[in-house]
Amino acid sequence: MTNNSGNKSEPYEEVENWPPYTYTEYPDVTTENIHAFTEFLTTENEVGLKMELQPWVSFCDSKCTFCYFPNENFSRSIMRPYVRALKKELEMYAKTSYIQTSIFDEVVLGGGSPTVLDADQLVEILTFCEENFNLTNDVMVKVAGCTHNLTVEKLKAISDFANRLDARCTQIDIGVQSFDNKIRKVLNIVDSAEDASRIIKTVREMGIYACIDLMYNLPGETMETVKKDVETAMGLEVEGIDYYALSIQPDTPLQKQVESGKVVNLADSETEKKMYLEAYEMFQNGGYKPTGHSRFSYVQEHFTESCVAGWPWAGQLTTGSGCFMGYLGPFSYVNIEPARDYIDFVSKGAFPIAKLSLDSKEDTMRKVMTRLYVRQPVDKIKFKQEFGIIPEEAFPGAIERLVKKGLLSVENSQIRVTEKGDLWRYNIVWEFCEK
Ligand code: SF4
């Protein structure tokens, strides 16, 4: 958030938009920590929770100015060796004891923009996952995509694959960001709002869930554009809307444009907060309920997903150049990029890890409290079984203080964020973690 105006009647000066324990804080890989990681992979997975398998296609054929995900320029010549390396990395994990004793109920092609691949390549990666990992009978198949490179042929190939597996649902995660053509142009989003709406309708007509990213407090955003975006998204009846404030990340073109004055700066934190609250009310009135990090949805699958419900116990196997969301047991990792370096590294038969973090028991306790920002309860009994103390003893005074402020509730051993606390859920979890 920018230009904090402050508001003393609120629990915090401004709304925090970035959670603790993200890839930005991981230390570089060392001989010691990679050894500990590979040793860990020789053990069996005894957690007993379903996991997410997430291969990344870290390429894109466009350059949105805000994008901080790995999105190297797509070129046909690199895709063959990249897909080969991606499969090899997946295979290296698949051969470990930890992964052989793990069960996955979500396969997610992430990135980047996997839909830069052609239909055959998409199915090739998905089929490789099917053949090498323990997938549940009701697995969810999700593919991240961009409206300008999604075609009926690709959608049909994904849907046929999922249907053959009898998938619980097939979903395309679509980065829309805004339906306002002026804002889209500022962000260098290549197609128009009308084009985006058209492809979303096609996705849904094919029986595939459409889950879209929508951002607010974009350059030039007003309350009017906020309302129009939410109305348009709900009018399209998309199954899920990941709704979050734009956060300008270092080294993005947008950061430079805002710094140089070429692009107007974002609205202040008070205005940003009002935008969220307006949208929140519209979602609630439209039948969309909050779930996960930032989602509003009306489909049951989004309220029971393992990737959310199992955080931070379950694990997420993420692979591919520059991927940064992987975590297995107490380890979290970021992969090497760019793709050329990644391909070289994998060809030598080594895990292509650039940053690797190992949680202490105390880190894990803090991380469990971050369930609150993904709108999941913290179970005091499970916490005590795991750590020998209850959260109130681990974090003296913190929970009581937050309950007093009306931001948390404690009932039947479950600590939850209240409706009032929802807006402040990132601030709440920072109370349990060191900045
Ligand atoms: S289309 Fe998606 S992956 Fe590509 S640059 Fe834009 S936000 Fe990033």
Mind sketching the topology for me?
Blueprint: H1 31-40, E1 51-57, E2 59-60, E3 72-73, H2 76-94, H3 97-100, E4 104-111, H4 119-132, E5 135-145, H5 152-164, E6 169-177, H6 181-186, H7 193-205, E7 209-216, H8 223-235, E8 240-245, H9 253-260, H10 269-285, E9 289-291, E10 295-297, H11 301-304, H12 306-309, E11 316-319, E12 326-328, E13 331-335, H13 339-347, E14 353-358, H14 361-369, E15 378-379, H15 380-387, H16 391-394, H17 398-404, E16 408-411, E17 414-417, H18 419-422, H19 425-430
Parallel strand pairs: 1-4, 1-11, 2-3, 4-5, 5-6, 6-7, 7-8
Antiparallel strand pairs: 8-10, 9-10, 12-13, 13-14, 15-17, 16-17
The structure holds iron/sulfur cluster.
Describe the protein's architecture and organization.
Helices cover 40% and strands 20% of the residues. With 435 residues, the protein is an alpha/beta fold. It folds into two domains: 23-358, pyruvate-formate lyase- activating enzyme (Alpha-Beta Horseshoe); 361-430, Arc Repressor Mutant, subunit A, CATH 1.10.10. The protein has a nine-stranded mixed beta sheet. Strands 12-13-14 form a three-stranded antiparallel beta sheet, covered by helices on one side. Strands 15-17-16 form a three-stranded antiparallel beta sheet. Strand 9 (289-291) and strand 10 form a beta hairpin. Helix 2 runs parallel beside helix 4, helix 2 packs across helix 13 (339-347) and helix 4 runs parallel beside helix 5. The protein is globular, with a radius of gyration of 21 Å. The protein starts with 30 loop residues before the first helix and ends in a 5-residue tail after the last helix. Bound molecules: iron/sulfur cluster.
